[in-house]
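Weekly puzzle thread! Below is a chain. First person to post its structure in token form gets bragging rights.
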Amino acid sequence: MQIKHDNNTTEHNIYITEEPTIFVGYSNDWGDNGIGLTKVITSKVNDDFDITSISTYFRFPKLNLSRDKMSMLKDSKGIRKVLDKNKADLLVVSQKYLSSLISFDYKTSLSSVGRLREALHNSNNVEEDIKEKLIEICKDMDPSDNIVIRNDLGYYSNSVTQTLTSGVQDLISSIRLNEHRGYGSYAGHVLEDNIEQWENIVNSSKPIIEDKVLNNIASTDSVIIDNEIYCSIVKMLKGTSEDRTMAMSTMSNCNINESKGYLALLFFHFYDTFKANSSWNHVAFKSLKDQFKYYIIDYGYHNESRYSEFINRLAKKDALTVEIVNHITHLMFDNVLKSAFGPSGSSVFRLKNVDVDIISECKDKVVDPYTTLISAPTYALPF
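Winning reply:
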């Protein structure tokens, strides 16, 4: 059941429709459907999933699974794709697919039939015709059933409460769940036509894994990008179109988990280069892009915030290493401090960054033993 209100109705500025609704969660950003993915994935499996117990998998639509990696998985682990999900040991989904099942509405709130019944029982100022209609609708419903209160105004419209009677305002305010009484976020719910697909996934007894995790598992025996390979990739990215394609292929087919620091650095520096290459839309690289677009920070090249944000994002993903810290610290010094305040090329003065360091909270998140930052040549990681 949904309760809607808008500016176009004339009698009480409220109307009621009955339709099935599955509430997924709240987001501060429209279309942030990762909350749906979290609901499906975390209750089933995680990145430590034991693939050795699996012999078959079923893939839902809209996945980014590298054909080469799936072939490697079949050869090394004996795991094959099946077309009937009931015959599969493992189900593979993607955030893109789950996103297509969900709709996000601005300024939407959640409640339940039980809360509405209680509010109607205690209310003395809700208009009688609305009250009677709500009581009739709730009569045969379960108290735990969801109610979505959806505002039909746009983002820049005036407050919806200006169009409602005080009785309706009080009713809506009283039944909202306490943690979401405001109108400041987006509520995600499964679209009516997609409820069956959603329930087939959520209620499945089979383990469910995200496509990028399966790609990572398939790459465990692949080459690990180290300092030397990173430098070779950078050199290729600065070469011909064929060189750039080779570099992106090397990235797509590496051991992703063991190379994530260098991969993050490559996306941080070479986003525009990748995007201009035809490999940008190849399935193998799209899978990599889905994971590492998180590190694309395409702003503030002469502002400290860009470099701080990159360090923080690496730390959150356990990908922060001493070498990358050294590189980004020296880069920040040159592009921000030295660029803004340093002497010019003709000056007799020289500015060195021997005292630039990161805060202790970030040092604690460095995955390898943290040592004092070193001046060049550590800075010489190319970009």
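Puzzle host: Confirmed. Bonus trivia for everyone else. Residues 304-380 form one domain.
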